[in-house]
Amino acid sequence: LGCPKGQTSGTGGWDTQALLSTTQEMELRRRDYQVERPLLNQKQLEELGRWSSVTGTHQWRTWLQCSHARARALLLQYLPVLAWLPRYPVRDWLLGDLLSGLSVAIMQLPQGLAYALLAGLPPVFGLYSSFYPVFIYFLFGTSRHISVGTFAVMSVMVGSVTESLAPDEDFLQDLNSTVNETARDAARVQLASALSVLVGLFQVGLGLVHFGFVVTYLSEPLVRGYTTAASVQVFISQLKYVFGLQLSSRSGPLSIIYTLLEVCWKLPQSVVGTMVTALVAGVVLVVMKLLNDKLQRHLPLPIPRELLTLIGATGISYGVGLKHRFGVDVVGDIPAGLIPPVAPNSQLFAKLVGNAFAIAVVGFAIAISLGKIFALRHGYRVDSNQELVALGLSNLVGGVFQCFPVSCSMSRSLVQESTGGNTQVAGAVSSLFILIIIVKLGELFQDLPKAVLAAAIIVNLKGMLMQFTDICSLWKANRMDLLIWLVTFVATILLNLDLGLAAAVAFSLLLVVFRTQLPHYSILGQVPDTDIYRDVAEYSEAREVPGVKVFRSSATVYFANAELYSDTLKQKCGVDVDRLISRKKKLLKKKELKLKRLLKEEKLQRQAAASKGTSVSINANTSIRDIESNNMEGSKAKVSAGKELEDTAASGQEDAKAPDGSTLKALGLPQPDFHSLVLDLGALSFVDTVCLKSLKNIFRDFREIEVEVYMAACHTPVVTQLEAGHFFDASITKQHLFASVHDAVVFALQHPRSGPVSPVSVS
């Protein structure tokens, strides 16, 4: 395997250096390197590299070890604030974290009030959800820049649960058919807090068992399609506040479609004052956003457009009397102060378990994806398992204090980063500002119109609704990802958020299985003057090595595609292997029956001679003399049988491995135009029992048609699995497994074979 002057040995006369520029060619000549090594099969490679199996240490032994250092490491792992807070550079970072925390709190206030409406709860519970979970994350979180708290997608998922399990129809008063809002809100708060506790338990449990990788099953197209569909649901759910309509509570599949149809049906009943309020608030928010974008270079902090809009709308509502004069629905009573902790109703857990798991996974997926983006941008590491624990504790503690499930907000996280936030201190500062508002200032927003909150929610949906542009980009980049995006979007719209997520994940996983079931199979040829092998259908200069077929699959071989792998291999080789084996067996069986018939006739003649008083041995000699002299008909048959046996013996002398004359040539069957088959197994990442059986069958079938089989480029873990599955035996050894395809091809050329392979190993 010598490769002088940067070239590797191989067949073909085409010079690859003709494609190189003069500078590159001179550089290659200057290097003047040479690579030489012997052919290496797996056994020789293991001996040369002194391979030994890695003895895996039992992880549970490490877990059970107890020492001062391990206790300290566990404490710092599960309570990260103790690791980074003592080293906090106060002079450099404190001012930025204070300004960032104030900016986030200014956004947190209106978003907390608005997203509580999405969850079907009184607005004050949005403020609670903006305080308790944020402070808990400050203690346990590892991301420095994400802003934990209320989020539109999480809120609408909670709202679908509360409205389905506590619909308005269950709280109608008998006298005037109006809804008892106090009882309804109390029931929904109980549901939301129990849901938050259950979500927290799921997240903490998954984090403690290091199950953070579960989020990897939510691909980016799936998450973006899901959040886009959720934003559409959020938009439709806010239309009742924009138009001032009273709608029926719906849940389950097609509920969002029925809600949209009901909105269209009841449009003539819209409250004009509510529509005007929402329209004016929306225009003000959009104008201030444009102003922010234009003046962001000149402003130390962005204009708090949502807070200013809420303050202005509250003042106008109180001064003009929007509720009494124009029928505009307002937020209502916002109690001052904190509420005591309440144990969740465990009897509700059975009803909430499915939704809780979906919310836990979605919330973590959103948080960890944003956290990793900021960590990569600022050069630090986010621990996915600890993030799962931190979010879980935030939701668990928050549920005890009557909060609903939270995650992180992209808009607030971007503001926290852009305004100078450096650590989780910014989140702690924002939670303290929210605490002040809850204790002292919350009651000032009692006259805030709900239409203004709805307008703020809809304007904030712009970023997620812009994800519709993914359709064009994915159409150009990857249409399989586009299919996942579309199926996720449609399933979430039609089946609601919980069933839609389950259907999207199931479809995504099935698509992965389907793509591995139909991989790209190819016959490889050697690129001239190299030891590189590529698909002959794609590379016009790649040439098949005479007498050797090299076959490659682009995916691993396992139970779902093992049969297709074998069938495609036989098809690509250009030989009907199964038919050839069948014909060979039929001819061998026919030959065997003929020999048995001849031997039976001879036995009968010997018995007839013995009955006349002549010994078998004399009769046999006599029969031979009769054949030679008298040319009798029965003797002719025996001579024919003897000649066939002699021919078989002669054939056995020509091919010692076929003493019975069972070669394709002796049987008059067509022979394959190649003597060796090389399986490129570089794509194998694991093997199962079906794969082992398929590979053994390939060895058996191709040896039946006098083709030797070799394997190449197996990774060490795969070789270990082959050994564990007892794949290697007397007929298939590690000498059939080579370090590279080129090694296997060169060995096959040096050791061409003909005739069937015996059941013993071939070295």
TrEMBL record:
Annotated transmembrane regions: 115-140, 194-218, 271-291, 356-376, 388-407, 419-439, 451-476, 482-514
CC annotations in GO: membrane
Renumbered residue ranges of the record's region Disordered: 627-659
SUPFAM superfamilies per the UniProt record, alphabetical: SpoIIaa-like
Domain STAS: 538-748
Major site of localization recorded for this protein: membrane
Source superkingdom: Eukaryota
Single GO term (MF): secondary active sulfate transmembrane transporter activity
Pfam families xref list: STAS, Sulfate_transp
Keywords: Coiled coil, Membrane, Transmembrane, Transmembrane helix
Compartment list: Membrane
Coiled coil: 581-608
UniProt key word Protein biosynthesis: no
Membrane topology: Multi-pass membrane protein
UniProt keyword Transmembrane helix, yes or no: yes
Protein name: Solute carrier family 26 member 6
Organism annotation: Equus asinus asinus
Gene expressing this chain: SLC26A6
